[in-house]
Amino acid sequence: MPIRNQGWWDRGLRVIAGTLLLIAGFWGGIDGLAGASLRIFGWLPLFTGLIGWDPIYAFFRWSTDVKARRE
User: Which residue in 6, 11, 14, 66 could disulfide with 45, CB within 3.0 to 4.6 Å?
Assistant: First the structure.
């Protein structure tokens, strides 16, 4: 399993943002390409927030997790 590279606040914001994007895409009355984009791209922050690992952070060796930076 990859090392966690997101702090608790980063994970929380991602889960909230992903959930809001999915709600707007499915039930927000937004149709067409914009609604489909929200439904597709809403999963990315939700998933990365739930698992606590972001591949872009890993590529650039960034971390918002204080514990991971100490090790």
Answer: 14
